[in-house]
Design brief:
Number of strands: 0
Helix content: over 70%
Distance between the termini: 9 Å
Shape: globular
Amino acid sequence: MEKEKYLKIAMESLSKVFSEAGARATIDVMAKLKLSAVSDVDQNLINLCNSTLTERVKMLKGDAIAVQFHKSIKAASG
């Protein structure tokens, strides 16, 4: 999957949980730290990023929302 497509999916998923500014800040950091050197995101990297984002949601919003978020982003990103 193209990196930009994945980032768009992640942004849309996070925007359902956080404010748009909060979601954008999270995506910007992830893009710099985890995805800076890639143009395509393979399934292993997608899984790693989804897990990282889910942990952030879990810390800030709790387990129930994190479970819903993980299902949502996993379905959207394959």
